Amino acid sequence: MLPRDESVEPVVRAEGLRKVFGDVEAVRGISFNVAKRECFGFLGPNGAGKTTTMRMIGCVSPASGGIFHVFGLDPKRSLRKIKARIGVVPQESNLDEALPVEENLTVYARFFNVPSNLAKQRADELLRFMELTEKRQSKVADLSGGMKRRLLISRALMSDPELLIFDEPTTGLDPQARHLVWDKMFELKKRGVTQIVTTHYMDEAQQLCDRLVIMDRGLIMEEGDPNGLIEKHIGREVHEMRLPEYLMKRVPKNDSLIRGFDRYRDLLLLYSDKADLLLDRLKSEGIESDYAVVRRSTLEDVFLKLTGRRLTE
Length: 313
Known about the structure:
The chain has 2 domains: 12-225, P-loop containing nucleotide triphosphate hydrolases (Rossmann fold); 235-296. It is 33% helix and 26% strand. The chain contains 11 helices and 13 strands. Helix 5 packs parallel to helix 6 and helix 8 (226-233) crosses helix 11 (299-307). The model has no long low-confidence stretch (mean pLDDT 91).
């Protein structure tokens, strides 16, 4: 994790941030800061308010209430100044299908008044960086999903932004393409680019984010670094068991080896730092299951504990 200098103005500062659509309050008074050079994540299911929050940060949708600054500026007064310093990678591709790959970059650069010779130079560098050089004259329609995602990132970088916003950066990609996008995001972080990521993939958030918030129904449930949140709420390991009701009642919830537990239908999740010892103890008391797994704790376990439901629900 990159160290944070608390004396430096946050790149994004929100206090009591709200967004209302008619009678629906999509974002319900959330507060958070994004530090310079860090990768900050918003983790939650679809409908949690992540994308709505990103649209406010990206100055696409105005806030309905609260204190909200980007680069220390108020979007209501300095909209253009803020947008000039931000690059956005949307969830859905909005590339120009009529233009070749390279022209998608150079034409986009005109919106930021980048001189044509500098735009060509940046396009060359970014195509190399994103491993798209051989596709520079290809039609966008001929690219794979992973290539389109990398081209979207390249386009967002054409204005040399200080803040890069990713909305569900790897949704719909195969594992190989996902890992390639992750590699490029890691490299950008090493270069000092501040990143904000929304995702409902737990492994993605755990891999990429220095800090994150867990959102549900427009509220922030918890904030911290991924490993710290797991240690705080769950412990190192989870013992999963599928049990009938009569055995479920016999599990000693106050056992010293059990840090906490949750139930999801007939699945019992027992949180422990010594799950193997716990498994042996349960077997000695006649509590056994055809399905019993000991695994490492994840952010999904944290989300389930905090909200009572899975991220995919």
